[in-house]
Amino acid sequence: MYKPPEFYQSLPKVELHRHLEGSVRVETLAEIGQSFGFPHKDTGTLRPLVQIGDNEPYTFENFLSKFAILRLFYRSPDVIGRITREAIADAAADNIRYLELRFTPVALSKAEGFPLGHVMDWVIEGARAGQEEYGVITRLIASVNRHESPDLAEQVAWLSMERKNGGIIGLDLAGNEAEFSAQPFQGIFQEAQQEGLGITIHSGEWGGAENVVEAITDFGCSRIGHGVRVMEDDTAVALAKERQTVFEVCITSNHQSGVVNHLLQHPFHQMLEAGLNATLNTDDPSISKITLGQEYFVACEKLGISLPALRAQIIAAAQASFLAPKEKAALVERLNIELDEKISPV
Q1: Beta-carbon neighbour count of residue 319 at 10 Å?
Q2: For residue 345, is it within any domain?
Q3: Does residue 229 belong to any structural domain of this protein?
């Protein structure tokens, strides 16, 4: 039975894969632009530079180009704290109960040459303030890019380990998977994991199923960012099913970045049918002009996911979080109580 977008917006949600830099409000960028004298300082001029338009090419090159513009705006501690708080406010408006917000310290530091540790502390402070004000349990994942130096990644990893008690609970490898290998970062990620950080890697998005296998076997990842191209190889599917690897799937982003040619061809349904542990996420909600509620709507009303399957996915996302066991159990209990009012269990 059809449910309107408002129903999906009302559901309690869990977001495991959302980039801070892809969550910035265009209106905020316009204000920052005016403050710092940027040539692009109104929303009309900015939108096509930082958001995906209907008539743009849906390619990873075009998708990643938006981040090059966004890097120009991170000009002060106040700006970085503000965009963090606003990202959490927007999550609260979408009824997200738990948010793992990943951010790229190198990107946030670039415009003004800020020390990486300072940038991380500003995001931590913004997240703490946002959680307190808006009631969204928020944890942070520090992200590094494949195309940047492993030395930088190692710095970010160590700084993250030092800030485990401040809310940084994971390390992520992102960036251009099509042209850059993950292998130079293997030792860094293994050490981070040994020190208690959760690790997740963008794999099987712009690269093939072999990258998913690499992330599981070589890196020991329990979670994969995107990973939808795992469906291209039966052996990779079997491995991921056996290990109960969690996939952080982002339907609209996968379409806009050229991973799938047509939205209705997205393999999320097939991933669930194959027994894979796939969760739903936004990736970059501002760049894609979406909410997680809208992603739920697409999954159910366009891809044919049942409401009980959606409910199971929400709980699976909570169980896959990098939270400590007691916090995780409390989150799952809260979600089950809320979901009982909305969706019957299977």
Answers
A1: 17
A2: no
A3: yes
Q: Provide CB contacts within 8 A for 143, sequence distance 6+.
A: 19, 102, 103, 104, 171, 172, 173, 174
CA angle, corner 184, sides to 148 and 181, nearest 5?
Answer: 75
Catalytic positions: 205
CA quadruple 285, 290, 291, 295: dihedral sign: negative
Tokens read off for 189? 């990620």
CB of 216 within 8 A of CB of 240?
A: yes
What is the value of pTM for the model shown? 0.96
Q: Which domain holds residue 282?
A: 5-340
113: CATH: 3.20.20.140
Per-residue pLDDT 10s for the chain (346 aa) are 899 999 999 999 999 999 999 999 999 999 998 888 887 668 988 999 999 998 999 998 999 899 999 999 999 999 999 999 999 999 999 999 999 999 999 999 998 999 999 999 999 999 999 999 999 999 999 999 999 999 999 999 999 999 999 999 999 999 888 889 999 999 999 999 999 999 999 999 989 999 999 999 999 999 999 999 999 999 999 999 999 999 999 999 999 999 999 999 999 999 999 999 999 999 999 999 999 999 999 999 999 999 999 999 999 999 999 999 999 999 999 999 999 998 876 5
**Total domains, the chain:** 1
Residue 35 has which token pair?
Answer: 């403050």
